[in-house]
Design a protein that fits this description.
This protein is mostly helical. It has 3 domains: about 15-80, Tetracycline Repressor, domain 2 (Orthogonal Bundle), CATH 1.10.357; about 90-200, Tetracycline Repressor, domain 2 (Orthogonal Bundle); about 205-265, no CATH class. About 65% of the residues lie in helices and about 0% in strands. It is built from 14 helices and 2 strands. A two-stranded antiparallel ribbon has the order 1-2. α5 (about 70-80) packs across α7, α6 (about 90-105) packs parallel to α10 (about 165-180) and α6 (about 90-105) runs antiparallel to α11 (about 185-200).
């Protein structure tokens, strides 16, 4: 039987034996979509273009992706999708590892090309065909937040903060650098950002101890003001008018309303 030739490759040679496996079809479709996204942009990426580039039948594409938006969203996930980095169980070290993984995603030219579409996908309501999950963009976010909740106290970090806010501070710093500078931070710069955040997370003395120290300092300052303001016992009310009145707002801020500030000085409050 005669084999028809097209160019230098026969039809028999071009066709792989048997029907392509599902995984092969999926791979061909997504590869074609990613190539189009990064070469001509999301607005010019169409089902027809993916069919032409991949060689996969249009019906097979629609069987997997009911709309162009759904296909584009899947291609975006392919570009930015990474498996969560394994956690070491060392909170400080894992924050740094997560920051580096996120930095690497932001440093990808494909990610930067698709960033406007990624933002649109993230802002779409749940259930929309083009919706992107935030965890797709930052795959370690949930795991890192869970680890913070479990290990913060043992690691000497603050426990009175939302664990997801901690992770978002890291992500936000890296993304802010990309938006402000036009490029992702270097690995060294990313680590410096994390170091600043970690320092702010270290546990401080409890608030009651802090307030007690502040009040003691305020009392000491008040005593000094009393001595220099000229208050002294005397007169019918038990004290003489000051030569230099004390700022009542300062006293009120330190101790709450007390009435006449000269009475506070006289009684040593």
């Amino acid at each position: 039987m005669k084999t028809e030739l097209r160019g230098t490759v026969s039809v028999k040679e071009r066709r792989s034996p048997g029907r392509p496996r599902k995984a092969e079809v999926d791979e061909a479709i997504l590869n074609a979509a990613v190539e189009l996204l990064t070469s001509v942009g999301p607005d010019a990426t169409t089902i027809s273009g993916v069919v032409r580039r991949s060689g996969i039948a249009r019906a097979s594409v629609y069987l997997r992706y009911p709309s162009r938006d759904a296909l584009v969203a899947a291609a975006v996930r392919r570009v930015i999708g990474r498996s969560p980095a394994p956690l070491a169980g060392d909170l400080e070290e894992d924050l740094k590892i997560g920051a580096e993984q996120t930095r690497a995603i932001f440093d990808s030219p494909e990610f930067q090309t698709l960033l406007p579409m990624i933002v649109r996908g993230l802002l779409r309501p749940d259930g929309h065909p083009g919706t992107l999950a935030y965890d797709t963009v930052v795959p370690n976010r949930r795991l890192a937040a869970k680890e913070y909740r479990q290990l913060a106290a043992v690691a000497g970090f603050r426990t009175n903060v939302d664990a997801e806010i901690v992770v978002d501070l890291v992500i936000g710093g890296l993304l802010s650098h990309l938006l402000a500078k036009g490029s992702a931070p270097s690995p060294a710069a990313a680590q410096r950002m994390v170091d600043v955040i970690i320092e702010g997370l270290r546990a401080r003395p409890d608030q009651r101890s802090t307030r007690a120290r502040q009040k003691a300092v305020a009392r000491s300052e008040l005593a000094g003001e009393c001595r220099t303001s000229g208050y002294s016992p005397g007169g019918a009310s038990g004290y003489s008018p000051p030569r230099d009145p004390i700022n009542a707002a300062t006293l009120s801020a330190s101790f709450g309303p007390r009435g006449d500030t000269s009475e506070d000085c006289y009684k040593g409050r």
